[in-house]
Design brief:
The protein is α/β, with parallel strands linked by helices. Strand 1 and strand 2 form a beta hairpin. The protein has 2 domains: 3-69, Multidrug-efflux Transporter Regulator, Chain: A, Domain 2 (Orthogonal Bundle), CATH 1.10.1660; 108-267, no CATH class. Mean pLDDT is 88; it is low at 155-162 and 167-176. Helix content is 48%, strand content 15%.
Length: 268
C-alpha cells in the first residue's frame, strides 16, 4: 500500500506519516531503493491509531515509543496517569490565578517602599557642592526619578534599567559578582582619580551609547557615597537623556587608599 493509500485509510496527511517515520514511531514496511517511495501494510493502521491518540493526549515521542508495544490496559492506565497529571497542573494554574493579584499587590508595595526610600534619601541629600546643581534643577531630577518608580510596574523590564548598587547591600558572593574592573566582559571608557568633587569630571566622557549597558563605579573613603549620591548620579544622566533607553548601574564602595576614584565601564 502506497503512502497515499495508507494515509487515506488512516485519515491523515502523508506528511504526518513521513514525520512518524522520521522520529522512529511508525516506519514503512518497505522503501523502494530507487524511487524512495514508502509502502505500508494495512495492519499498521492499528499502531497509527495508538500513536495519533497518544500524541493528541500530550505524550512525548519517547513516551509513545515506550507504549506502542504495550497492551490496551497499560495504555489505558497511561491515559489515566496523564489525566491525573493534567488535573494537578490545572489545580496549580488555578492557584496561580488566585494568588496573582496578591503577588502583584505585594511587588507594587515593595516597589513603592524602594521608591520612597530612594526619593527620601535624595531629598535629604544636598548636591550643590558635589555636583554644582541648584535646588530647582535637583527638584526636577527627584521628580523624574519619582515618576520613573511610579510607573515601573507597567514598564517592560527589557525597556528600563535603573539600578543602584551599594557596598552594604552585597555579601561576599555579591562583591565578586560586581567586581566590574576585573570582569573581562566590561571595558573602561573613562576614569578619574584623586578628585574632590564629582563636578570636576562628571559628564566629561561625553554622550553615552543607548542600547548598551554602562556601569558607573565610585570608590572613596568610608561613608563617602550613599543612596542620595548614587541615585543623583543616575538621575543626572537620565535627565540628560530623556526619551532614550539607558541601561545604567551605579556601584559605590570604599577605596583601599582612601582616595576618590571613578570608572565608567561599558559591557562589551
Amino acid at each position: 500500500m502506497t503512502i497515499k493509500d495508507f494515509a487515506g485509510l488512516c485519515g491523515c496527511n502523508p506528511q504526518t506519516l513521513r514525520y512518524y517515520d522520521h522520529v522512529g514511531l511508525l516506519k514503512p514496511v518497505q522503501v523502494d531503493p530507487w524511487t524512495g517511495y514508502r509502502y505500508y501494510d494495512e495492519e499498521q493502521a492499528i499502531p497509527f491509531v495508538k500513536i495519533k491518540n497518544l500524541q493528541k493526549a500530550g505524550f512525548t515521542i519517547e513516551e509513545i515509543k515506550g507504549l506502542l508495544d504495550q497492551d490496551n490496559q497499560v495504555i489505558f492506565d497511561a491515559f489515566s496517569a496523564k489525566i491525573a497529571e493534567q488535573e494537578q497542573r490545572l489545580r496549580e494554574i488555578k492557584e496561580i490565578q488566585q494568588s496573582y493579584q496578591t503577588e502583584m499587590n505585594e511587588i507594587q508595595k515593595k516597589i513603592n517602599e524602594v521608591r520612597e526610600k530612594i526619593t527620601d534619601a535624595m531629598r535629604d541629600y544636598d548636591p550643590a557642592e558635589e555636583f554644582g546643581i541648584d535646588e530647582a534643577r535637583y527638584k526636577e531630577i527627584i521628580d523624574m526619578v519619582d515618576q520613573a518608580f511610579a510607573g515601573i510596574a507597567e514598564l517592560d523590564p527589557k525597556e528600563v534599567e535603573y539600578s543602584e548598587v551599594n557596598e552594604e547591600h552585597l555579601d561576599e558572593a555579591g562583591k565578586k559578582k560586581f567586581d566590574f574592573l576585573n570582569d573581562p566582559g566590561y571595558e573602561t571608557l573613562y576614569e578619574a582619580h584623586g578628585w574632590q568633587r564629582a563636578k570636576e569630571f562628571f559628564g566629561a566622557w561625553g554622550e553615552l551609547e543607548t542600547e548598551r549597558e554602562h556601569v558607573l563605579l565610585f570608590r572613596g573613603a568610608e561613608g563617602r557615597f550613599g543612596i542620595g549620591f548614587s541615585n543623583t548620579v543616575l538621575g543626572l544622566i537620565l535627565a540628560e537623556n530623556k526619551g532614550k533607553r539607558m541601561d545604567l548601574s551605579c556601584s559605590t564602595g570604599e577605596s583601599p587608599d582612601g582616595q576618590n576614584h571613578f570608572w565608567l565601564l561599558r559591557k562589551r
